[in-house]
Design a protein that fits this description.
Alpha-Beta Plaits; four-stranded antiparallel beta sheet; 3 helices; globular
């Protein structure tokens, strides 16, 4: 059964322009991953458009065939590089992984 992986990040910067640029950079870097990590079945990145002060800034939704595929994604060196950048600029992270019968 497909595993859906959803992660949201709240950027640490209080400057709106900086947050916007960082959100775009997170999206750009994340979008490089499907080309190099074959375990990714579906992949979508969204940048928050409403209620910037209270909502998280960026969200990732991705599907994997199984837990092992998700784990290979997490451990992949290219993912690790993107994750290091993200961790360096966020103040919060929320995530959920769940099983779905029908992929995106």
């Amino acid at each position: 059964m497909t595993i859906r992986h959803i992660v949201s990040w709240k950027l640490a910067s209080t400057d709106a322009d900086t947050r916007a640029e960082q959100a775009k950079e997170i999206s750009r870097q994340l979008h490089t991953l499907p080309a190099v990590i074959p375990d990714i079945l579906a992949f979508e990145v969204g940048i928050n458009a409403i209620n910037a002060d209270s909502n998280f800034d960026v969200v990732l939704t991705a599907d994997y065939a199984d837990e092992a595929g998700l784990q290979r994604y997490v451990e992949h060196p290219d993912h690790q590089k993107v994750a290091a950048y993200i961790h360096s600029i966020v103040s919060g992270r929320a995530g959920v992984d769940y099983r779905v019968a029908k992929p995106l």
